[in-house]
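User: Hi! I'm working on a homework problem where we have to compare a predicted structure to a textbook description. Could you give me the structure for the chain below?
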Amino acid sequence: MSEELKSILDNVIYLDIETTGLDETSSEIIEIGAIKFKDNTITTFETLIKPRGRVPIGIYNLCTGLSKEELYSAPSLGNVRESLSQFLEDLPLICHNGNFEKKFFRYHLPQIKNTIMDSMELAAILEPYHKEYNLNALMKTVTDMNKNEIHRGLDDSINTLKVVNSLLCRLWSSEEKKGKKRTLYENINKYYPYLKKWSWNKHLLKPPFFIYDDYDYVSYKDKKENETFLEPLKIDYKKYEELLKDEKIWNNGGDFGYTYRKNQLEFSKKIRENYEKGERIFIEAPTGSGKTFAYVIIAAIGTYLNSLKKRKDDASFIISTNTKELQNQLIERDIPNILKKLCLYDKLKFGAMKGKANYICVERLNKCDRLEGDEEGNLALLFLRRLAEKGEYGDIENISYFIVKRFNLERYFKDVTCDSDSCNLEKCIKPCYLRKRYNELPTENITVINHSLLACWPYTEKKKINHLIIDEGHNLMEKCYDFFAEEFTSSEFLESLDMIDKGHPNIIGLLLNLNASFGFRETIEKDKIMYLVNEIIVNLNILMNDFRTMRLVSGEYDFNTEFFIPRDDLKTMTKCLQPEISALKESIYPLYKMLNTYVSNIVLDDEVTGDNDYKNINDYIIKLKGTFDMLDKFLEASTFFAKILEIDKEYDEFRLKTVPLNVGELVNEHMLKDVKSTTFLSATLRIENSFNRIKKHLGQEKANDFLIPPVFDLKKQTKIFALTDMGRYDDANYIKRISNFIYETSKKLSGHVLVLFNNNIRRNGVYEELEMLTRGSKIEVHTNKKSINILNDKNRQAIILGTKGFFEGIDVPGDGLSCVMLDKLPNHSPEYPILRAVTTYQHKMYQDFNYPQLCIKVKQIYGRLVRSTFDYGYFIILDPGENQYTLRNLQRDLGGPVIESTTSLKVLEGMESDYNNWKKRNLNIMIKKLQREKKDIGLEFEGESKKHKMFWELEGVENGIYNFKNINYELKGKL
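Assistant: Happy to help. Predicted structure tokens:
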């Protein structure tokens, strides 16, 4: 194979290692593979390395073909050091994600000093628009190779070679086609002084007489899509939701497993009627009801028909979501798929819109001094410029997580993203992705946004919100407090004070320029300005020192309290802090007054429209006055607001929040004002079997409501347990007890367990315990959300530990997820500041405030378990607390079986019988379906099982006896 390979680069080595984990101090190298190109001669190196410790079972699953016997009979690391060093010589090593190899070599093979060149870094600079840069993703994107990464040393080294060759071919081909005046190589050497010695720089220059045909696996297309062929259909769009009955539309192309559901039609009809009447409605649509499908079809057809009638206001929908996952799912999958089925893909426009701070500003990027001082900054600058140069990309949330970390982009985002106050999209002439999206808004039919943007919609002049669908609407119960809060953050305010005399441009510099342009009408006293700035900083430091002296932070959490009604032991302290906060506020005013006076005296009554210096200074002055007013409002006692003091656990910053308690008025004023129709959607809107709580909280008492009946039989498909023998969550032995129970459950179920935690500390504690308990077993323990996909692998036994980010958006139908556990009920602490304010000022009981949010969260968590008619399993609350009233209410609101309060031992005793019954039920359903359709079970069973994400397999048929197997459960019999 090596003789057939070619490398554009000579005198280099492509190398890959496999390890037992990600941390070099606790993990080992178990395989090294490399291919060397030296003076046009090719040689390879490949060896397994015998580990000294345990190899997690997941590694054998990850590394294709790796066996325990083969690994433990391999030479030790010490025995391969010499041969490896001789092979490597002093040639540069090209590794994919080179920092990984670098840290493992530094720790385990410190004698290897070769330069390591990161091919992932090269890919990011050359093609900055990809969402993923792992080797597997790039193989599928930049090459025509029809293969996957197998996580074996030599094979992955060869794949890295082909990816590097492909990236360089694509670069040079693109530069030739576009006839660029200056190549990337020339650009770097002219504009990026710190990248002249960048390890990849010299390799960006195309060799003379280069022959592209030598690399026939290169893909020169930007995207590879497997387009589904669709028959042209004549569709009567005036039927709206009645089209859901027409399976010809939805099964066109064969890529949908579509089944008509009457409830979905009724649901869709309600959305249409609400839209046509211009009303507001709350609809609870349980899991499996086809919620997204139902509202997208109405939005699509409604906007299309109104666009034909030239009714522009009614030809657009805004869809608001809470999570990034749903927003991406709608834009990348749901909306385009449904539009294609409806033959509307080329007739309607859709897109996502976010707040200004989510987009790169080319002007701010080019003025950012922090990117000009070293190689790291220059690399980040080069990446961001190439990403944003044509205005086709620029959403920072779409930048690969690896790239954000690799180039330390979070350090610069505040300096290079659009500033909400100073960004003028109407006058911007730069190639800006935000401006592109902004200008597309008026003609867009479906725009997907998030709830926080909806709360302060800043693009009204371009697109008015007429028809609104709020998906994941249950999140508004708590999120509205954040949306309408005013917040002073000490660290952010210090950064704004730095702008007075630091950076380009700074406020003093702008002030001097403005003064000069108006004929030096003022004498700018820089020293006096800086004296006032230092006075503010002194007051900030006094406050922070007071917090430390009072020892307000204890333990591993940030400190927070309601400022005017703290718990008794804090009352004296918060009272002492009032004059200190007042002093901070009063020290801001002189700076504001001085800057404002300077500007007024300079410009007088002259025309200043279009003067950027004036605009930037004036915006800064307005912000300064806003900060003064914010602190003034915070210090004013009021029964209409919660006043919250928060202190970072490391004393890095403090926050002062003013949170309105009556959010309903603000929802109507800021979110729904002038909106013609609004549909609130969620699987969890009702509390205590009623929409009244959420409607009242959001100021929507007059809105209609509609309940879709449950799609699944939760009483038959699930069991719910509240354990009585784990103890309370704050007991010393709680972590150990629940870890043992989780482990025993996983042994019985062969993994496929999701455990959710209310905080990271307990999650991390359980992870450490399970790491010890699972050693030597086949059970894997994961904490990354991307690991959810492992649950779908019947050959892997996985426990996934998640925190609040896992409460929603987890969708694992079939046998993949059969047990969900919750560490404790998500009760608010009695000291939760908003709770204290509501119970004190509005005279509500603890349960009146606490239960609604608890109910919604637990319903969401329970909803992770059943996503289809074939789903089943246990929902286990490890610490249910001591309030039986709460459990009784939950039992009613979950709509499932009786919550059984019992011991862990009894749960484990009944587990095998329950799960075998559920599996047997699913097997019978599939067999009966195939028999009803008169299909050959021997031929069709495997496909039917996979379609429903089942682990059932037909092992064989002998003498009319069918042998079925689901992991460790077997059933035999005649059909």
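For your comparison, note the following. The chain has a mean pLDDT of 93. The longest helix spans residues 571-603. Good luck with the assignment!
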